Amino acid sequence: SLLFFVGTILFIVSDLILSQIYFREGTKRVMVIYNLATYYAAQILIGFSILYLTI
User: Fold this and answer.
1) What is the dihedral of CA 43, 49, 51, 53, to 10 degrees?
2) 14, 39 contact by CB (below 8 A)
3) DSSP secondary structure letter of residue 26
């Protein structure tokens, strides 16, 4: 479904941001905020896609 697809894309973006946080010098706090925002948005969308499949 579309929710699952968008959630997957956000999860990939979250992992890309996380790799920048771990392997780049001088990461900024805003990167951590973007990482958490995309991660939780991805989890919510994937969860809703599973919920709507069972209804």
Assistant:
1) -150
2) yes
3) T
Kindly state the greatest CA–CA separation across the chain: 46
Q: Cα separation of 3 and 17, whole Å?
A: 21
pTM score of the predicted model: 0.85
Using the Cα atoms of residue 25, residue 29, residue 31 and residue 32 in order, give the sign of their dihedral: positive
Counting as low any pLDDT under 50, the low residues of the chain are none
Rounded CA separation 38/55 (Å):
26
Q: What is the pLDDT of residue 12?
A: 97
Render 35-52 in DSSP notation, one character per residue.
HHHHHHHHHHHHHHHHHH
Q: Where are the domains of the chain?
A: 16-44
